């Protein structure tokens, strides 16, 4: 019944703690990203700390929007992400796959009021968060488009 989302890439990222906001936005565009990881678990490390003592992508931009743009350029993923591939396929909070669902499938979690304003949702089966495919989703699409197109 549920459609399993497709990921834009199999790359797995780990970010250092100061990049928590970037991590959330990397998940938003479908990139598997954690903030805490074993240094040896095969993830690609991303940091803004020049002294970070392991092979990594070192970001020089300030702010998560510019950092997202810089990293996607480094990884060669800007076009894929611009095309919307992977958008809202991972839970912004916990990095688990999001399932696109209809309101009636998760009615006991959202209540009737929320169903009146939305019919399409994304559901995380790990942390049980629900993201409506409503105004926040549209705002984030616009933010992403503005961010990727900024100079
Ligand atoms: Zn989750």
Description:
The protein is 34% helix and 17% strand. The protein is α/β, with parallel strands linked by helices and 151 residues long. The chain has a domain at 10-88. The chain has a 4-stranded parallel beta sheet with strand order 2-1-3-4, with helices on one face. Helix 1 crosses helix 2. The longest helix has 15 residues, at 135-149. The site of zinc ion has 8 residues, from loops. Zinc ion (ZN) binds at residues 91, 93-94, 96, 124, 126-127, 129.
Task: Please describe the topology of this protein.
Layout: E1 12-15, H1 20-28, E2 32-34, E3 44-47, E4 57-58, H2 64-75, H3 78-82, E5 98-102, H4 107-117, E6 120-124, E7 130-132, H5 135-149
Parallel strand pairs: 1-2, 1-3, 3-4
Antiparallel strand pairs: 5-6, 6-7
Helix pairs in contact: 1-2
The chain binds zinc ion.
Zinc ion (ZN) binds next to loops.
Features:
151 residues; alpha/beta; four-stranded parallel β-sheet; three-stranded antiparallel β-sheet; 7 strands; 34% helix; globular; disordered N terminus; binds zinc ion
Summarize the structure.
The termini are far apart. Helices cover 34% and strands 17% of the residues. The protein is an alpha/beta fold and 151 residues long.
Strand order of the largest sheet: 2-1-3-4
Bound molecules: zinc ion
Taking the alpha carbons of the first and last residues, their distance comes to: 42 Å
Give the helix tally. 5
SSE succession: EHEEEHHEHEEH
Which value, in Å, is the CA radius of gyration? Answer: 16 Å
């Amino acid at each position: 019944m549920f459609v399993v989302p497709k990921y834009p890439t199999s790359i797995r990222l780990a970010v250092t703690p100061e990049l928590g906001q970037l991590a959330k936005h990397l998940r938003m565009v479908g990139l598997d990203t954690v903030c805490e990881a074993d240094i040896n678990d095969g993830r690609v490390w991303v940091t803004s700390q020049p002294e970070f003592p392991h092979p990594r992508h070192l970001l020089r931009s300030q702010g998560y929007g510019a950092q997202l743009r810089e990293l996607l350029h480094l990884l060669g993923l800007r076009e894929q992400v611009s095309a919307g591939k992977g958008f809202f396929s991972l839970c912004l909070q916990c990095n688990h796959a999001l399932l696109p669902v209809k309101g009636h499938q998760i009615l006991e979690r959202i209540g009737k009021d929320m169903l009146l304003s939305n019919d399409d949702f994304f559901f995380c089966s790990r942390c049980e968060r629900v993201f409506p495919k409503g105004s926040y989703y549209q705002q984030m699409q616009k933010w992403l488009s503005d961010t990727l197109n900024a100079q």
